[in-house]
TrEMBL record, chain A:
Belongs to the ABC transporter superfamily. Keywords: Amino-acid transport, ATP-binding, Cell membrane, Membrane, Nucleotide-binding, Transport. GO terms for cellular component: plasma membrane. It comes from the Bacteria. This is Amino acid ABC transporter ATP-binding protein. One of its GO terms (molecular function) is ATP binding. Its main location: membrane. It is found in: Cell membrane. Residues 15-249 form the ABC transporter domain. It is a peripheral membrane protein. It comes from Ancylobacter dichloromethanicus. InterPro entries: AAA+_ATPase, ABC_ATPase_HisP-typ, ABC_transporter-like_ATP-bd, ABC_transporter-like_CS, MetN_ABC_transporter-like, P-loop_NTPase. SUPFAM superfamilies: P-loop containing nucleoside triphosphate hydrolases.
TrEMBL record, chain B:
Its main location: membrane. Signal peptide: none annotated. This is ABC transporter permease. It is a multi-pass membrane protein. One of its GO terms (cellular component) is ATP-binding cassette (ABC) transporter complex.
């Protein structure tokens, strides 16, 4: 198969990892990880801290390079050294635990920055887009606020809106509620749920087990750099490995 | 014995003093604009990637920070003339001051750029921004906002330090003062007047930078909080 130029077939997965290996020095963080996320599906990555789930997620958006294996995202070979990284990142939205809104820009400027400067969307059109995605996350009245004037939950929703404005084909969420209290967590999760309902393809790293159970089409439990157990959300209620049983036992 | 001060002979040369003050401000203006540009590129050079560029920028900063301004001025002055290049004292002074303030500005801006959190850059990368766009939107402006007070101080300091260029007869304020006191023999009075003029120039500069800051950093204008 000519992976460099072939357009993705209709049924091709949006994200596919095949036997991915990655080490940080002597530490093996990904040890033959494989999973695929079909269009419109939500995959939840769970596991202990240090199990490699965040690294796996970051590899999808080329924030980490891999030592071995294949990663295919939206028809692009991410493991190819000649990859057009910026083109990849126009297809992939990523939201981080620490929001990372640009503090010197208003929420509107945060959102219009990438569409305007990367996709060359005219200013007026980008502003309309900002209003639209902010409404999607329930923050339409915060258009002209600065990030520091928003609560953590609002900042995270604004960060999600900023990613959505690039109209990505897949969204990655890296422990996006870990810095929030339960109430603020709830408002962020609602936004993610709404995205799932609209058919957005998503990969989430989360510690919110009940949320995972409700939203996941697929759950991947990572343990010591490997996919230890994978399946539908049912594996959270009836795990077949003792490690997952112990993890969800303590995770609940 | 009493102290007898007579300012009249100094003050009646107000025209010359005003010309000198104007020239001082011109020197400062040129050096600040060019020095700020050097500072941005120097800071990027010192931070980013290429080992040779990093070393060159580092050597420039260290060479300037560890030599006296007067020596730097003489080096430019005699260096250019030994190359057979004839420039006015004003031009030489402007070049020397620019080279000097560029080095200090490089260090201050580097501190500002380094203060930008890695997560900010990752977020920008994740949105598909190019390296240049990330620098411009996410590193340079918020970085400068953080060190703006330090930059203001450095630029005011430069204006005051420009008095040293009187040594190569640039006709700035101190040179004018030297001339007036030799003509009137009222040295103390002359330098009292000149000191007050420098204070006034400092206030003018600080006020100008305050206004510029309001224009450059709308978030600070609206919220009043440090970044």
């Amino acid at each position: 198969m000519n992976a460099h130029s072939a357009p993705p077939a209709a049924a091709a997965p949006v994200v596919a990892l095949r036997n991915v290996h990655k080490s940080f020095g002597p530490l093996k963080v990904l040890d033959g990880v494989s999973f695929t996320v079909p269009r419109g599906e939500v995959m939840v990555l769970i596991g202990r801290s240090g199990s490699g789930k965040s690294t796996a997620l970051r590899c999808i958006d080329r924030f980490e390079t891999i030592d071995n294996g294949e990663i295919e995202v939206c028809g692009r070979r991410v493991d190819d050294a000649r990859l057009d990284v910026r083109a990849l990142r126009q297809d992939v939205g990523i939201v981080f635990q620490s929001y990372n809104l640009f503090p010197h820009l208003t929420i509107e400027e945060n959102i219009t920055l990438a569409p305007h400067s990367v996709k060359k969307v005219p200013k007026a059109e980008a502003r309309a887009l900002a209003a639209k995605v902010l409404a999607q996350v329930g923050l339409e009245e915060k258009l002209h606020a600065y990030p520091e004037q928003l609560s953590g939950g609002q900042q995270q929703r604004a960060a999600i809106a900023r990613s959505l404005a690039m109209q990505p084909k897949v969204m990655l969420f890296d422990e996006v509620t870990s810095a929030l209290d339960p109430e603020l967590t709830g408002e962020v999760l609602k936004v993610i749920e709404a995205l799932a309902t609209e058919g957005m393809t998503m990969v989430l790293v989360t510690h919110e087990m009940s949320f995972a159970r409700g939203i996941a089409d697929q759950v991947v439990f990572m343990h010591k750099g490997k996919v230890h157990e994978a399946g539908s959300a049912d594996i959270l209620s009836s795990p077949s490995t003792p490690e997952l049983a112990q993890f969800v036992g303590t995770g609940l | 014995m009493g102290l007898e001060l007579d300012f009249s002979v100094v003050l009646e040369r107000w025209r010359a003093l005003l010309d000198g003050a104007a020239l001082t401000l011109q020197l400062a203006f040129i050096a600040v604009i060019c020095g700020a540009a050097i500072g941005v590129f120097g800071a990027i050079g010192r931070r980013g990637g290429n080992a040779l560029v990093e070393r060159l920028c580092g050597a420039y900063v260290e060479a300037i920070r560890n030599t006296p301004l007067l020596v730097q001025i003489f080096l430019v002055y005699f260096g250019l003339s030994s190359l057979g290049l004839k420039f006015s004292a004003f031009t030489v002074a402007a070049v020397a001051l620019t080279i000097n303030v560029g080095a200090y500005t490089t260090e201050i801006m580097r501190a500002g750029f380094d203060s930008i959190h890695k997560g900010q850059i990752e977020a920008a990368e994740g949105l598909g921004l190019s390296r240049a766009q990330i620098y411009w939107h996410v590193i340079i402006w918020p970085g400068i906002e953080r060190v703006y007070p330090a930059l203001t101080s450095q630029f005011v300091l430069l204006m005051l330090a420009s008095s040293v260029t009187s040594q190569i007869s640039a006709e700035e304020l101190t040179a004018v003062a030297n001339y007036i006191q030799s003509e009137t023999y009222r040295s103390f009075e002359t330098y009292i007047v000149v000191a007050f003029i420098y204070i006034a120039l400092s206030f003018v500069m600080r006020f100008g930078f305050w206004l510029l800051g309001l224009a450059l950093f709308p978030r600070r204008r609206r919220l009043g909080t440090p970044l």
